[in-house]
Amino acid sequence: MGAAFEEKAGVMIVRLRVTPSASADKIGGRWEGPEGATRLVLRVTAPPDKGRANKAAIRLLAKALGLPKTAVSITAGETDRLKTLTLAGDVIKLTAQLKKLLGDTP
Description:
Elements: E1 5-8, E2 11-19, E3 26-32, E4 38-43, H1 52-65, E5 72-76, E6 82-87, H2 91-102
Parallel strand pairs: 2-4
Antiparallel strand pairs: 1-2, 2-6, 3-4, 5-6
């Protein structure tokens, strides 16, 4: 049904499934939702308390993609495991990096 990421109006829209309070910070892999939606999997050690997990997710994704934290923002799912983020940057480069994180390329 839905792709894990798409380019829209010059920015990249990324859909995540975030697991807070994980044993280690980790990014990569895909999660398939019951309706067929695909999301990039992200695990953070931060608890889901007062936005800590959201901040950790932004920091981890920004670092993995070589973006400043200010280029990453949550646009939906602030209090949910299923989040939508907007990334500002080179869309072509971000597409290649996100495919790699999803396991779509070697």
